[in-house]
User: Fold Putative iron-regulated membrane protein from Gelidibacter sediminis.
Amino acid sequence: MKLFPKIAKKIHLYLGLSCGLIASISGLTGALYVWQPEITAALNPKLLQVDAFDTISEASILKTSLALYENQKDSVAKIFLPYREQQTISIVYTTGETLYYHPENGIVLGQKSVSISFFEDLIHIHRTLGIPEIGKYIVGGSALLFFVFLLTSGMFIWWKKYKENIKKGIKIKWKRNKKRVNYDLHKTFGFFFFMPLMLMAFSGGYFTYNTYYKEGFKLTDGFMENTKPEKDMKTDNVLDLQDLLENPDKNYALRAIYVPHDANGTYQFRYIKDRFIVPGLRRTKELKVDQNGKVINVASFDSDPVSEQIAAQMYPVHIGEIAGLLGRILVFISGFVPALLFVTGFKYFYFRTFKKTINKN
Assistant:
């Protein structure tokens, strides 16, 4: 048992110097992205905001979307309806260009701005470090190592040292030397942000390894059962796509349409319970339809198994939106903590190793 604390310290040290750096980059980029809706809306009012949006009906938004699609059918790749900070309709064309349209009259409002592109690049760095192919596995793997080993080993070390004097373990003595203040910052912030960082790291790994997460979540299906009504729309049903866009869903708002790229492709319709950011559970619906109108797949929060409902909450948990404004503020602050822990941990390593060796010599 005496060997275990030494192993925990080694794990904490080496993972801190490796995964800690990646977690710092992910944390800082994620902290900034928390306020992406407010920042992009403020910087792009003509592209994203509409006067008296509340007076525009769901039917009008769908009618405008259908008209825009019908007029430019062959060149449309994706259509994004009002969602989160965006009150307008945007169309991504097969050329890669993105244009924004008024949701009621279909007037062109402009093309994608530099600030919108900046946040798209930011989230790409957050999820992949900007590295093609393997970047997401580096970030996702680091998040899981951070969750399983780095945070738990740090808490174990803290508990072994301060379980008899918790007050000492959470106190920062600012008037002592730099080495001591550095150590106090590391242990105190590590303690107070242990749970937020655990949740962020666990949910962050989902975006890379969602298939494995969902398999794990399926264990809950054996204990809990969704008692909501079965899906009212079955696979193999045939839908009129025009009718689908002309008649709003009674429970969900259509937020995105993905147009097939080839003869074998399918239409994907993605729905959300609330168009704009609200606290609470994230409720979604997805519909896949082939080019003959045949329903290939339909999934809805109301009738999905519990495991799928849990999976749907990974994004709002990760970004704090599930707990409203306070949750987002907590995630924003927590995003800076990995960088703080990395810097203070590196300094501690330097003080204990290199500087000690130099002084001896």
The CA atoms of residues 22 and 139 lie 7 Å apart.
